[in-house]
Amino acid sequence: MATFVIKASKFLLPGAVQRGGYLTIQDGVFGCWTAEAPDGMPVVDCSGKWVAPGFVDTHIHGFHNHATDDCDADGINASSEALLRHGTTSWLPTTFTDSAERIEAACASIAAADESRGAGFVGARIQGIYLEGPFFTAAHVGAQNPAYLSDPNYELFSCWQEAAGGRIRKTALAPERDGSEAYCARVRAEGAVACIGHTDATFDQVLAAVNAGATCFVHTYNGMRGLHHREPGVVGAAMATRETYAELICDGYHVNPGAIRAMVNAKGWDHVALITDCLGPGGMPEGNYMSGGLPVVMRGGACYLVNGGNLAGSTATLAKVVKNVYDWDVVSAEQALRMATEVPARSAGIDGACGLILPGRPADFNVLNADLTLEATYLGGALVE
User: Fold this and answer.
1) 277 catalytic, yes or no?
2) DSSP SS3 for 103
């Protein structure tokens, strides 16, 4: 296992940014930061660069022409390998609105992919599963398949959780659907995060879901009732509920930088989680693909539904969206990096496993240039080639 010391100009540590110094990697796990270099250990010199935790994508459907709805364990692992080369070291494979049987099969295939990995597997770690649907409204169905929309159903959740081997960490719903409050309370009691999205709910309906245990908003602004001064809607509730988290797709297509700034100002950067909502075609050439059972076309850096032309999802990586929010002067470099590491991990309840550089954890980290372009990625202390 890798043992060395890394020297850098800035280390993104949990308490603060440490300027200069050295971080020990011992047998593939993080050691401690020190001001002086430990004696007798090789030094990897990253002077002038950032060392930050590996990116954590908590809303992503696939990558490199593989997606969760393929129900293919090998495809999930291929996505993981490709994501790692773009700096994402942990992810939550995210399902689509589909039949109950297909969602169960998707959960089972993700679990199988996770269980198949030996010590030599080099790919982004699966930290759980995100169920995006099917408990949504037709009014904001977006690129979800309207044929399979339904009310929240805890029995279905339990079936999917069993197929997933207990890996489901997030589950999304529209609060105006019957049974939403009971569903939020029950899944939260079991340790899953209830999320609000693809919804036309009123402000009061959203608050009822939050009061029942929902803590996250799905790709905020997209697929939800907007802000109005007499009916604040879902966006208004996201801004007003300070302790909830707002996912944001900052790919340059889904949300205007001004709207991103407004959300960050309302909630604080530490409650805004950068996500990609990347579809299976991510990382592939432009052209026609299938996604979530619907035909899409990828062009100009985004995916659009063939029928209707609406945005279907992103093709971005977290490395790209981190640089975007920094280049747009929405947040500082430190904040941008934390919004793609510790904040999404905390929002999904997986911060005990990833998103932070802490002694004893697997040494999954990125090296970035001063302008936040990705320079290198390490998994378990080993450089990703």
Assistant:
1) yes
2) helix
